[in-house]
Amino acid sequence: MSSLSLAARDTSTMLRRNLLHARRYPSLTLNLLLTPVVLLLLFVYVFGDVMSAGIAGGGPDRSVYIAYIVPGLLLMTIGSTTIGTAVSVSNDMTEGIIARFRTMAIHRGSVITGHVIGSVLQAVVSVVLVGAVGVAIGFRSVDATPLEWLAAFGLLVLFALALTWIAVGMGMVSPNVEAASNNAMPLIFLPLISSAFVPIDAMPGWFRPIAEYQPFTPAIETLRGLLLGTEIGNNGWIAIAWCVGLTVLGYRWSKAVYNRDPK
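The chain above was modelled as a monomer; its predicted structure follows.
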């Protein structure tokens, strides 16, 4: 078999292994998935009328805030589920299975690639579930064309790939699963200080650069524009640049740590 065929075969095996683990131990994924769902329900039903009045500049209408918040929660879902990736990778590193894989006649990169593909698939499924909750409580995107829906899906997958590679690197350098979970917390904390919940113009002036110059805000504004028809501007290119940059950084970081000789 060619090296490409061997890599594909071994990656497929590692992917099945990771999906099997996720199926046998779903509690971590479910716990991380509950965070964006709870936040969605909390902000819509507790703060929805007030936030809608502030955003729309008129009377309270919860549907306005539902439309505003769902795109941000979809990207927050990706950040939340990738924490499980960091924990899973750290668990493999600390339990010694990675050391065992190093001695086996398998493609060296298949272990990491299997984690990444499996995590991206889980992130996409989680986004679909959170999106279904959003639709159930009133989110609608009636003006989006099929091409815009396809672009939105592509952005979500690209963003999931970028954050997953970063999470893999975090998991590899963490001494234990608890540290991996803590190290990956910015992936769920950053959406809270982005434009996911309130417009940047409504934030204090000193805080706006923090919210504006981070990867989640341009991705949220791009997704919002694709689904709701709002202005995208330069956010689309900035979001893609962030995704590509984080993917390359995470890939090189993870590869360097994985290829490092164990102490």
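Residues 111 and 204 are 45 Å apart (CA to CA).
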